[in-house]
């Protein structure tokens, strides 16, 4: 038997232990959950069952369930979720763009490029490093992350609410869980969208082949492979080969807008992880290619901004709503496309 252990991997908000094995030539048939318990230190049955349910156990690069029987020379890979790294929470004097603050909470505008919390490869410079420098005794969420009620991706800009008390954390987290909070994003997507508005529904889960992506699952077992996700979109402006849209989240899954837009054939502009950094619509003219490359340089990230945020204040009961202007890099890209679309006609 050969064994390999690598450092944890990160899929934006989760860390993993990666183990791989090759079964012996003389391996007798044995359920994979028992096989892994025998070979991985501290691997409990619950941990293995969770990995199997999550689709994180592979034999010969094919997902298997916990009752699969290991055969001679099988190549086995398993990814276990890793607990957050407590010792990585180092306070750092990083400025915060706070748009509202009181004794219970604060609302801030996250710039693009800032990671929300420490993880593999991003141990400093995160929003949490900044929060624990500026604020004492922030309450932990269910993942032991101080103050965080929700999150947005590293290269997505926009509004986040942070809890400053245990009561606020519980109250706000319940609103997000019950889908009563309001979140609206602005995005540039590839293609001219057929409908002026619509609803996208599809279970989102981790991509079976690319662990850094999520994808939409369909069919009878969709609820086993992913979690229900609903996004409502509306066209703001048609800009030739791209469309400016707003997206309202009914649920809050990892990469939800990015995954849902790709699912309906309108990948976010310059979303490298989901293939939007290539020219997906347009002409073959060299000038057009140069124009798009210039847009990519102006906006070197996915074109997504968390523009509005609404919730009920946990103490006063007042409904609060916040709006954040589209950041300069995204606005400049919109303006360039608007100018291009005008001259196309």
Per-chain topology:
Elements: E1 2-10, E2 15-22, E3 30-31, H1 32-39, H2 45-53, E4 57-59, E5 62-63, E6 69-70, E7 75-82, E8 98-101, E9 105-110, H3 127-134, E10 157-163, H4 166-177, E11 182-190, E12 197-201, E13 203-206, E14 214-217, H5 222-225, E15 230-239, E16 242-249, H6 256-263, H7 286-298, E17 304-312, E18 319-323, H8 328-344
Parallel strand pairs: 10-17
Antiparallel strand pairs: 1-2, 2-7, 3-6, 4-5, 4-7, 8-9, 9-10, 11-16, 11-17, 12-15, 13-14, 15-16, 17-18
Task: Describe the structure in brief.
This protein has eight helices and 18 strands.
Characteristics of this structure?
alpha+beta; five-stranded antiparallel sheet; 30% strand; globular
Can you describe what's shown?
Helix content is 23%, strand content 30%. With 345 residues, it is an alpha+beta fold. The strands form four sheets. Strands 8, 9, 10, 11, 12, 15, 16, 17 and 18 form a nine-stranded mixed sheet that branches. A five-stranded antiparallel sheet has the order 1-2-7-4-5. Strands 3-6 form a two-stranded antiparallel sheet.
Form type = globular
Main beta-sheet strand count, sense and barrel state:
9 strands, mixed
Strand percentage lies at 25-35%
What is the string of SSEs from the N terminus onward? Answer: EEEHHEEEEEEHEHEEEEHEEHHEEH
């Amino acid at each position: 038997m050969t064994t390999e252990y690598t450092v944890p991997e990160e899929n934006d908000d989760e860390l993993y232990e990666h183990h791989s094995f090759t079964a012996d030539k003389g391996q007798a048939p044995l359920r994979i959950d028992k096989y892994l318990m025998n070979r991985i230190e501290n691997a409990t049955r619950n941990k293995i069952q969770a990995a199997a349910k999550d689709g994180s156990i592979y034999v010969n690069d094919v997902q298997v369930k916990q009752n699969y029987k290991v055969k001679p020379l099988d190549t086995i890979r398993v990814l276990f979720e890793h607990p957050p790294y407590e010792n990585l929470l180092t306070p750092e004097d990083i400025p915060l763009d706070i748009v509202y603050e009181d004794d219970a909470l604060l609302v801030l505008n996250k710039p693009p490029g800032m990671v929300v919390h420490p993880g593999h490869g991003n141990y400093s410079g995160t929003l949490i490093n900044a929060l624990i420098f500026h604020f004492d005794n922030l309450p932990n969420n269910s993942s032991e992350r101080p103050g965080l009620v929700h999150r947005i991706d590293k290269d997505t800009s926009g509004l986040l609410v942070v809890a400053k008390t245990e009561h606020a954390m519980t109250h706000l987290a319940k609103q997000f869980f019950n889908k009563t909070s309001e979140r609206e994003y602005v995005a540039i997507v590839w293609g001219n969208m057929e409908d002026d508005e619509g609803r996208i529904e599809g279970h989102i889960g981790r991509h079976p082949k690319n662990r850094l992506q999520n994808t939409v699952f369909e069919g009878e077992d969709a609820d086993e492979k992913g979690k229900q996700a609903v996004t409502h979109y509306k066209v703001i402006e048609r800009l030739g080969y791209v469309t400016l849209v707003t997206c309202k989240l009914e649920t809050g899954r990892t990469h939800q807008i990015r995954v849902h837009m790709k699912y309906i054939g309108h990948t976010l502009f310059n979303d490298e992880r989901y293939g939007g950094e290539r020219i997906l619509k347009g002409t073959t003219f060299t000038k057009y290619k140069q124009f798009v490359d210039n847009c990519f340089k102006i906006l070197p990230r996915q074109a997504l901004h968390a523009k509005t945020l609404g919730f009920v204040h946990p103490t006063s009961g007042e409904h609060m709503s916040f709006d954040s202007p589209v950041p300069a890099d995204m606005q400049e890209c919109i303006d360039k496309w608007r100018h291009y679309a005008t001259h196309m006609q």
